[in-house]
């Protein structure tokens, strides 16, 4: 079976608040050693948040629509119809042939 997982997402973006920018600048200076001002961060960066709205899994499976047993049954049924029609036609032919002899 084939499993297919679909995720629907939504994106939200907003400008970084001044308070959060100051906190980020301190963390960047402490961890990365980069000199960055809060004003630079506010002008050149955006805070983006990605949310997964919902997820669901769709199971796609291949199932044979026609099994071997059904195929053999159908072939036997069709052969029976042809055989029955052949026997019926044979007796109809004999009846027609015998009625021609009498007349």
Could you explain the architecture of this structure?
The structure is a single chain. The chain is of the alpha+beta class. 55% of the residues lie in helices and 28% in strands. The chain contains 3 helices and 2 strands, in the order βααβα. The protein has helices spanning 18-32, 38-44, 68-102; strands at residues 2-15, 46-60. The protein has a two-stranded antiparallel sheet.
Structural class label: alpha+beta
Helix percentage range: 55-70%
Q: Low-confidence stretches at least 5 residues in length (pLDDT < 50)? A: none
Order of helices and strands: EHHEH
| Mean pLDDT value | 78
What distance separates the N and C termini?
Answer: 72 Å
What's a quick, concise take on this entry?
The chain has 103 residues and is an alpha+beta fold. The protein is 55% helix and 28% strand. It has 3 helices and 2 strands, in the order βααβα.
């Amino acid at each position: 079976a084939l499993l297919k997982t679909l995720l629907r997402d939504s994106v939200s973006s907003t400008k970084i608040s001044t308070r959060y920018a100051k906190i980020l600048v301190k963390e960047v200076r402490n961890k990365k050693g980069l000199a960055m001002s809060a004003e630079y961060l506010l002008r050149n960066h955006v805070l983006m948040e990605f949310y997964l709205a919902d997820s669901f899994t769709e199971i796609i499976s291949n199932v044979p629509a026609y099994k071997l047993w059904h195929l053999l049954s159908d072939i036997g049924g069709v052969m029976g119809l042809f055989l029955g029609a052949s026997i019926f036609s044979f007796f109809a032919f004999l009846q027609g042939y015998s009625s021609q002899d009498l007349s």
